[in-house]
Amino acid sequence: MRTTRRTDGSTDDHTSGPGRRTSRRPGRLAVLAASGLAAAALVAGCGSSGSSSSAPTKPPAASSAPASPGMTATTLRTTTDAHLGTIVTDSAGFTLYRFDHDSATPPTATCDGSCATLWPPVPATGTTVSVSGIDAKLVGTVTRADGSKQLTLAGWPLYRYAPDQKPGDTMGQGVQGIWFAATPTGDRATAGSGGSGGSGY
Q1: pTM of this prediction?
Q2: Closest of 148, 161, 171 to residue 116, by C-alpha
């Protein structure tokens, strides 16, 4: 048998004849195995990096719908009452009123507490206002004492009247001589008095 020593420290054993046996070369195999592991690690690293990064997504399409779920549309429109002439209503047809104890210059709302329960303010927070038969330039808002926003018309805060049970009712007209249905210009509707009783605050 002949043994050959290699420069990498491994040995080759040679046996002549039919029963010749060649030993494995651990040094070279170790190098090849290490190279293979490095390549596998590199491939795995690339694959991991690709799977962890999300694919680019398209930006959401713009929508003309309100972005906030709580946003509602408010419509101020006009209607003709047989006794009051042209007055302002909300989108449901309920009469809107103005209060003489308020102020238009500057806009000031003074109906609070139990007054606001009987005369609910027309809210402005989070709303989109559309008008029909009214100059949009006359529509504005006022900040109430509690920080909420209320719609105004020509500076006058607008209210509903709780006893009005159906669209077209004008039970709040003339209450205590200080509550009046609003006209399209924000003035008082004065042709008649639909409800002289009740609490005017």
Answers
A1: 0.62
A2: 161
